[in-house]
Predict the 3D structure of the following.
Amino acid sequence: MTQLILGAGGILGSALTRHNAARKIPCVSAKHADLDLCDPPAIEAALDRYVPSCVVNAAALTAVDLCETERERAFEVNAAAPARAAAACRRRGIRFVHISTDYVFDGQLRRPYREEDFARPLSVYGAAKLEGERRVLAADPSALVIRVAWVFDCGGRTFLCRLREMLFSEETLRVADDRTGNCTYAPDLAEAIEILIARRASGLLHFANRGELSWRDFADALVAEARRLGRPIRCRKIEPISSASLNLAARRPPYSVLDTSRYERLTGRTIRPWRETLSAFLRE
Ligand SMILES: NC(=O)c1ccc[n+]([C@@H]2O[C@H](COP(=O)([O-])OP(=O)(O)OC[C@H]3O[C@@H](n4cnc5c(N)ncnc54)[C@H](OP(=O)(O)O)[C@@H]3O)[C@@H](O)[C@H]2O)c1
């Protein structure tokens, strides 16, 4: 019952690798340098060599702003290649799990987004990921596509990941406070993936830690938790700024909270609130 992880060097891929090792789930973790999602013969050969029961595609081009100028590459890595991998898995009877994003939404709703809500991406990254969802499910209707939001864990490169380091190196943190979403602690997502595979879940579903927040809320809570744990942080002040002042190339949804009730109904489990993940995040 081997699991093959694609993109195993990223935030989610690393968390899945650690999770599977701790849970003794047999697993082959393939980093980008070991196995390129965009190399169909290599993917087919890996499926035939490792004969996994399940492939988790944690590989993606996640540099949201870069995607604006690298449109072709964004669609190849985030849409065409996952669909080819899903088709190769389907031909062999291998389950395929793919990850997508809250950035498929335009942020105009004022209640949490459900799986069936209309998706209208504001960025090339979001458009490519939406195309990826559709093409993966067309190639393999029994595939599972999990939309997640603001993934964080120790060692990652996203803003929330870097905030953890910045607490110890910067006196003032300038953090945007005008976008509302969810965050997803990668170890919790890794556990959810194990549960969903065991339940043979398929189709589209949302997963993120409970509770909505802005990046500033995350920074405030992280500082409070670090102080509670007695960590020697340097940060003394958090300065709220607007997302516009960051001059980012890609537009992001102002509101992209995910409704995770389908996951909770399907698994009978309640996802823990994001604030409860912070002490583990700081301790790692
Ligand atoms: N990070 C977030 O905030 C966030 C939010 C919503 C959804 N997601 C989704 O969550 C999933 C996991 O992302 P993550 O947060 O773990 O991102 P990540 O840390 O950027 O990891 C992505 C990994 O994919 C690898 N990769 C890129 N192109 C590849 C290719 N052609 N073949 C094989 N590997 C390739 C990257 O390797 P290199 O760096 O060496 O290229 C990297 O290790 C993705 O589907 C992403 O779209 C992420």
